[in-house]
């Protein structure tokens, strides 16, 4: 668990949620439901939620729209990170990133190993920053979404987490998101 800075205040972020699936609907989207419950339970706001088929250009269009908006600070994408012919999420998102967050995928796979063993090598979980918007992509199972949120993303979207978090970058009025280690 990370360190919390006592004088920092929690800042709710506007988070858009995209489920990548050729078959799911809002009624059958367990992964999207898991992420929505997690983000709202942590005090963040759901800015938008959509489901799109695993098509590179449709995914880019939705995420490009969100990263162009001032009212979206974070994008969560679930699904399309495997190795089948229809898994195109990394290919859709990588060209949009100004910077990649390599440590996210590495940490996600390390944490997943305890849960699913070596099958974690088939996860192409990625993250990056585009236009001061943080984007996290994870596999399309509710368990993978819960692992990503609870063990990585949640702390990184909390201004109280130290020594570093992404809140200062997405909300420039928040100071000292990366302060000295205590």
From TrEMBL:
SMART domains: MoCF_biosynth. The keyword Protein biosynthesis does not apply. Belongs to the MoaB/Mog family. Transmembrane segments: none annotated. InterPro entries: MoaB, MoaB/Mog-like_dom_sf, MoaB/Mog_dom, MoaB_proteobac. Keywords: Molybdenum cofactor biosynthesis. Residues 16-160 form the MoaB/Mog domain. The keyword Ion transport does not apply. CDD domains: MogA_MoaB. Pathway: Cofactor biosynthesis; molybdopterin biosynthesis. Pfam families: MoCF_biosynth. It comes from the Bacteria. May be involved in the biosynthesis of molybdopterin. This is Molybdenum cofactor biosynthesis protein B.
């Amino acid at each position: 668990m990370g360190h919390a800075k006592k004088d920092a205040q929690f800042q709710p972020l506007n988070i858009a949620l995209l489920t990548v699936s050729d078959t799911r609907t809002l009624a059958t989207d367990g992964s999207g439901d898991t992420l929505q419950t997690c983000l709202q339970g942590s005090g963040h706001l759901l800015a938008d939620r959509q489901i799109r088929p695993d098509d590179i250009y449709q995914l880019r269009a939705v995420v490009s729209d969100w990263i162009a908006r001032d009212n979206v600070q974070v994008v969560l994408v679930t699904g399309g990170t495997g190795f089948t012919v229809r898994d195109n999420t990394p290919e859709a998102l990588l060209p949009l990133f100004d910077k990649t967050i390599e440590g996210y995928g590495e940490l996600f796979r390390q944490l997943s190993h305890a849960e699913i063993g070596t099958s974690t090598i088939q996860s192409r979980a990625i993250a990056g920053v585009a236009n001061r918007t943080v984007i996290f992509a994870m596999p399309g199972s509710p368990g993978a979404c819960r692992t990503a949120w609870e063990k990585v993303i949640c702390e990184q979207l909390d201004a109280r987490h130290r020594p570093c978090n992404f809140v200062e970058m997405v909300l420039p009025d928040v100071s000292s998101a990366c302060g000295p280690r205590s």
